[in-house]
């Protein structure tokens, strides 16, 4: 009977240690800035139609952003 109690104690201790390790590793990403903040910073405005769009989707021509190739002025 004592062995069963001891076994249960060892299992509980193993789970307790595992949970602490999982909590320590998962608490680290919460310190990084929210993804929403970086997305808002990357929004740019089209120089032709003034529409806002992500910088990754915008065309950069002569230090101006454009939403599509049609809005890039022909020079
Ligand atoms: Zn545009």
Brief overview:
It is built from two helices and four strands; from the N terminus they run H-H-E-E-E-E.
Features:
75 residues, alpha+beta, 2 domains, two-stranded antiparallel sheet, 4 strands, 16% strand, rod-shaped, binds zinc ion
Helix content: 40-55%
Mean pLDDT, to the nearest integer, reads 85
Q: Strand order within the widest sheet? A: 1-2
Oligomeric status: single chain
Distance between the ends: 89 Å
Give the C-alpha Rg: 27 Å
Strand content: 15-25%
Order of helices and strands: HHEEEE
Total strand count, please?
4
Describe this structure in words.
This protein is α+β, with helices and mostly antiparallel strands and 75 residues long. It has two domains: 1-31; 33-75, no CATH class. The protein is 44% helix and 16% strand. The chain contains two helices and four strands. It has helices at 2-27, 35-41; strands at residues 43-45, 52-54, 59-61, 64-66. The strands form two sheets. The protein has a two-stranded antiparallel sheet. A hairpin with a 2-residue loop joins β3 and β4. It is rod-shaped. The mean pLDDT is 85. Residues 46, 48-49, 51, 66-68, 71 line the site of zinc ion (ZN). Zinc ion binds at residues 46, 48-49, 51, 66-68, 71.
Secondary structure layout:
Elements: H1 2-27, H2 35-41, E1 43-45, E2 52-54, E3 59-61, E4 64-66
Antiparallel strand pairs: 1-2, 3-4
The structure holds zinc ion (ZN).
